[in-house]
Amino acid sequence: MPVYEQGAVRPKGFPPTVEMLRRGIQAYRTAKGYEPRVAFPYVTMEKVLLGREFACNGTKLRISAVRFHEIAPPIADLGDVEMMSQLVIPGIAAAVAAYPFLGTGKKTEADGAATQAMRNAMGQIYMRGVIKGGEGGGRDQMNRDAALYMCEPVGTGWGPEVDFLVDPLEVTNQAKPLNLDKGEYCGGEGWEPKLTDPNEWYPGYSGALSLLAAINASGKRGGVRRLTDDLYLNKMFLPWQLVVAGLNVNSPAAQIVEQAMEKFGVTAEQLVASALGRSRHKHTFDTWIEAGMRDERIIKPTDGDSMYAWPIVSGLLTFAGLTGGVMEGIIGGLAGVPVGANMSFQFTSHAKLKEERSDADLLNPDHRFGFSDDEYGKMVRSELFDSEHIGSTLRRLGPDSQLRAFVLDAARNEVDTPGFSFRDFLREIAIAESRDPEIRKDFRFSSGSREFLNKIFLKQGWWDVRRVGQLSDFRFDQDVLYLATALTPNKWTPLAGMKEGNAHFTTESLFTGGSQTVFIMEVDSVKVS
Asked: 379, 406, 432 — which closes off a domain?
């Protein structure tokens, strides 16, 4: 049950402790009837990691010690990817590579160093890996220095098939509170996290991390779809008690607040929520306040919304989310699976919300789905489509010959639309093709064609961006590995950040897997002369 202090105004208790996580996860498992199944093989993992080497910024390091702090034991069978212990090294390498840039303001250089170190470490692993997406290191094609790009192969080229979602360096905003008095809902420039007391990180800095998710791509469900990070992910993390009430990312604020009060036996003023402090969220914050919440109890950090699952299971947050990067949202959603923090989501236009700024309203469908031409192009690469503007997707499939081939191939799967035949659709396509290009680009399909095309896209495995989804809808194999490695003390987790000695680094990482085990892993790495 969430922690509610009587009479408290400003939220307290951050960061959550290991014991708080244990209690929260155990309460969830008890309610669901889950029991430990097997013991996690920590000794085996330690043996695999000891002596492994990786390179960061031209320096070679060797793992010299590994320590584990179990938070929750497995409640399902251990998977092959979860047992690939060496997969944690790329995340650790990325954090170590970015660490020297702390306090310099050089966030671009830090991101590049983290990404290159992650790539190098992946290249040493016996696997056929593929980057399916990532922020900072996973934009479409190689349009950033040192970027890990979508569909880039990683690993040795031999061995098990593994898909990756990565964010080599999450949280690059500076450590200063937001200027709420002037109505500014955005972070500052640079990367200068100098605050050392997490209790003073209100409402700004959350802590820098390296994030990695690995998914078995050779299993029954075939890994994960490609994901572009050029859109926003509008998301909502909810504790399991509210999930069973049928709430999701589009549920009205009044309904969420009412259900939370009923489930937890508190007043609206005692509830605690969080979302990034951005101008596009201002109207949503207002609806939370109108529903009875206190503005002081809505935490508005500059970044770090990928870690919301942990304070939710700890009882420090009632709900959290709203718009942010696709990759940290999906990776953060994976972390919520073993702890009962469910994430529902919907893709949203980055361009339209940026255009509207302080007038942006997530409750307005025209703002959420005002996709630009460029966004429609990026959506096609990830097999995403807009069911309300089907022509905008089709026009980006390529020449007419490719469009016809796509439709013909899909039609063989016996797509059926009552009252509208495949022949009717071909007639409309022929009319479109007969017009000159300038007229053709404004061609509008009939309602019958749109319904027919929607079914074709869905039959082919495409995702409708207007659909409210759950993480399981993204075809994740149960065999997954999640790792979050902290560079600095983290506001949302017990991770204390990295420590540097004369010739060594100590990193702390949160690990979860498909077996739903949860533990903190400390790794000592020494410089190799």
From this structure: 379
Q: Residue 387 class from Cβ within 10 Å (0-12 exposed, 13-18 middle, 19+ buried)? A: middle
Tens digits of residue pLDDT in 31-60:
999 999 899 999 999 999 999 999 999 999
Give just the sign of the alpha carbon dihedral 312, 305, 203, 489: positive
CATH of the domain at 139: 3.30.540.10
Q: 216 and 88: one domain?
A: yes
How many Å apart are CA 486 and CA 488, to the nearest integer? 6
**What per-residue string of b and e applies to 36-69 under the rule 16 or more CB within 10 Å gives b?**
eeeebebeebbebbeebebbbeeeebebeebeee
- Paired with 213 in beta bridges are 165, 482
Give the DSSP letter of residue 265.
Answer: T
290 and 392 assigned to the same domain: no
By the 8 A CB rule, do 71 and 518 touch? yes
The count of structural domains within the chain is 3
List b or e across 502-529, with b for residues whose CB sees 16 or more CB atoms inside 10 angstroms.
eeebbbbbbbbbbbbbbbbbebbbbeee
Let me know whether 348 and 239 are in one domain: yes
pLDDT tens for 354-396 read 888 778 888 888 899 989 989 988 888 888 999 988 877 777 7
Q: Residue 81 sits in which domain range?
A: 76-178+190-221+475-498+510-516
| Pair 80, 214 in one domain | yes
Q: Which whole-number Å values give the CA distances from 73 to 25, 26, 404, in the listed order?
A: 10, 10, 52
pTM score of the predicted model: 0.88
Backbone angles phi, psi at 324, to 5 degrees: -170, -175
